[in-house]
């Protein structure tokens, strides 16, 4: 029986219907893997194969109206970019592609996904996937930015040999970005994006805390201050939430 017809006929059987969707995703992934390997046994063409899989997942997601397959498409796109830029980098450590290390090119790709998400609203077939793409792209972008704020655009060997304080401008830039995203979300009344920005703002604060105070503070005092900060931030967050809900 056609999977689309089954979903229409047995709308109540959500788990059973989605199990067919997962089976389709696995079968597509395995088929593309063997198809790609038949042309090149090395990793050099894997990125293109994963990109083809992403396209197929996207088309199947639209046809079956499946958000699970759409998530598979997004994950495959990100994996394709990571894999192929690794193959294209060509240097001894495969660290840089077009002058960008992994965190920077992942942040770049996250920004591209955010831009592309806006296009989904213009088409009836993809409008249902807009929210999923919009928020997951922001999470990926901000997470990549968090790693970038720690590493800068440096290879691991260089990063491990310098003091973290020398990357202060990257941390400051990321903090300014988070404030800008938060203000944008408040202006657009996008509560979900606002909450995402707040969560990453807190992650940013604790990342800086571990960066600059872990080696300089007594560990007992360190975790005592960490626990106190959790309580203070939680209290203030609850007060802000109440004011916004009034």
TrEMBL record:
Keywords: Membrane, Transmembrane, Transmembrane helix. It comes from Niabella ginsengisoli. It comes from the Bacteria. This is DUF2157 domain-containing protein. The chain crosses the membrane at residues 12-35, 41-61, 68-88, 100-120, 132-155, 167-186, 193-210, 216-234.
């Amino acid at each position: 029986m056609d999977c689309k017809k089954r979903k229409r006929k047995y709308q109540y059987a959500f788990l059973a219907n989605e199990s067919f969707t997962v089976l389709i995703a696995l079968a597509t992934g395995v088929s593309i893997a063997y198809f790609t390997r038949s042309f090149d046994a090395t990793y050099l063409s894997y990125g293109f194969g994963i990109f083809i899989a992403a396209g197929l997942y996207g088309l199947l997601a639209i046809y079956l109206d499946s958000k699970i397959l759409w998530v598979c498409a997004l994950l495959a796109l990100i994996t394709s970019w990571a894999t192929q830029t690794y193959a294209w980098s060509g240097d001894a450590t495969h660290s840089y592609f077009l002058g960008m290390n992994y965190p920077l090119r992942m942040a770049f790709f996250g920004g591209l996904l955010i831009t592309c998400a806006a296009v989904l609203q213009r088409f009836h077939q993809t409008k249902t996937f807009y929210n999923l793409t919009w928020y997951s792209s922001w999470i990926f972008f901000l997470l990549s930015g968090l790693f970038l704020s720690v590493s800068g655009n440096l290879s691991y060997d260089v990063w491990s040999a310098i003091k973290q304080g020398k990357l202060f401008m990257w941390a400051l830039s990321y903090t300014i970005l988070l404030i800008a995203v938060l203000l944008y979300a408040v202006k657009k009344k996008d509560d979900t994006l606002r909450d995402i920005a707040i969560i990453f703002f807190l992650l940013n604060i604790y990342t800086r805390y571990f960066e600059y105070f872990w080696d300089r503070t007594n560990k007992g005092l360190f975790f005592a201050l960490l626990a106190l900060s959790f309580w203070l931030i939680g209290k203030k967050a609850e007060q802000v939430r109440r004011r916004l809900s009034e």
